[in-house]
Write a structure and sequence with these properties.
Elements lengths: L1 H6 L10 H6 L9 E4 L7 H8 L8 E5 L4 H9 L4 E4 L4 H11 L3
Parallel strand pairs: 1-2, 2-3
Amino acid sequence: MDDLVKSCGYESQLFASAEEFLAFEQPSTIDCMLIDVKMPGLSGIELQAELNKHSKHPPVIFITSHKDERTRRTAMSGGAFAFLGKPVDIEKLIGYLESALGH
């Protein structure tokens, strides 16, 4: 994903876990987040819930191989910008990324 985001002309910052992101000292520099639902530690859905505790947070695009309807509904009702299954349709992802960033 990092290479794809960079190939579109955007900067990318990788985090190994939700906890690592939450400890990041400059979250306001993040304009959009690509989050996997299943991660070590906090899940992507749990990270979204943490982000929702703050009045301002970047748009979230979920990418997952666990694309059950209940998880999708939870993510979307939590304010997700998009919910994509793996393997990812690259054109769709780029479209959602550009829309989320206002391009």
